[in-house]
Amino acid sequence: MTELTNVTEERVKNEVESSNQNNNMEEARMTSAEVKMQAVEEARQNLMKAKSVLEANMDAEANIKKSAQVNVGKAETAYLEALKKVELPTTKIEVWNEVTNTAEQVIFTKEQKEIIIATSVYSMAVSKVNLECGKDLITNEHFDKVPLYITEAALFYNADIELKDLNGNIVPKGTPNVYVPVDKANGYWQWASYHEHNLNAIVKDDTKLTIENVRIKKFDSLQEFGKYRGVNNVLSRGFNGLEKAGNAALATQQEFFNRVFQKALELKANISVVTKYYNFGKTLSLKVWNSAMQGVCEAKLEEYDLTIGDTIIKTLNDMKISKDTIRHRYMIDAITQLANYAPNGEDKKIGLDETLSTIKTLNESSIKIINEVKSDHVNTIYSEMLTQYLKNHGVIKEEQAA
Questions:
Q1: Dihedral, CA atoms, 368, 281, 283, 328, nearest 10 degrees?
Q2: Which of these, 19, 59, 268, 382, could form a disulfide with 334 (CB 3.0-4.6 Å)?
Q3: Mean pLDDT score, 100-108
C-alpha cells in the first residue's frame, strides 16, 4: 500500500512539474510575442517622429532636409524589420464558396476573413527574386487572379508536421484559423508577395491588399493532399530561356531582345550565350529578364550597338569557326577574355577590335584546334588566339609558337 502511495505521489509530482513547464513555455512564448509587438509600436512611434521632423524642415536648407529624409528612410526600414518578426501575422482573404454547380452555371458566394497562412517543409520555396518580382506582379493591371487554394492546418497538426507563419515563426500546434496553401505553379509565390506588399503598405500608411479568389479545399489525408498537388503540378513549368526572350521581344518591342531571340533561333543556341555576344560578354540578371517579360526595358539596353554582336558572329562564320562552336559559351568567353587582355601588365586592354583582327589572322591549324577542342575549352581557344595576337605583334616568332 505504501508503495502504491509513493508511486501515486511521484506521478502527481511529475504531472505538476510537466504542467508548470508547459505553462512557463506558454508564458515565454507570449512574452516573446509581446516583446515583438512592443518593438513594432516603438518603431512606429520613431517613424512618426522622423516624419514630423521632416515635415517641419520641408523649407529648410538642402542638407538639413536631406538628413531628415534619410532618417525617415532609416525609420521605415526599422519599422518594416520589426513587422517581419511579428508572430502569427494575419492575412485578409476573400473566400469564394461554391453554392451551385450545374451544366448551365456555377454560382459562388464571397466572404472576407482574416486567417493565418502557414507553410511546411513540403511547401514550394519562394526565392528572393520571385518575391521582389511578385510584389510588382500582384498590382499589375494584366495580372490574372487565378484561384488560390488553401487547406486547414489540422491536416498537418495531426501528422506532427511543423508549420511556420509567413514571418518564419513556428506556429504552435492547434493554433486556430491557420491554413496551408495548396501549392500550384502560378500561385505558390503569391502568398509571400502579398504579405511583403502589405507589410510595406503598413509602413507607408497605404491600403493593404485583400487576396481574392481563394478557395478552401478539404483533404482526407496528407497522401491525398500530395497526390492532388502532384497531379496538378507535374507538368507545370515557366518559360524556358528561348521562350522568355521571345516574350520579352514582344512585350518590350525593343530591338535588343528581338535580335537576341532571332539569333538564338538561328544558331539553336542557349539564350544566355547569345546574350553575351550582344552584351559585351555578360549575361542579363534574372531581374532584368523578369522586367522585360512584363514589357519594362532597362534604358541602357537601348543604347547598345547591336552591330557589335552581329560583327563578332559574322567574323567567326567567315573564319570557318563551326556553328556548333559559336553556339556554345566557350567561344564568346574566350573572346571576352582576350579583349580584356592587357599587354605587359598595363592598364589598357587590347579591346574587341584588336581581338577580331586577331581572329581574322588565325591559320587553318588553329581553326581546327578551336573547332575540335574536347576539354578545357575556354583556355584552349583563348591560348590559340593569344598566341596569334603575340605573333602578330612580334612578341613571339612563328617557330617559337610551333
A1: 0
A2: 382
A3: 93
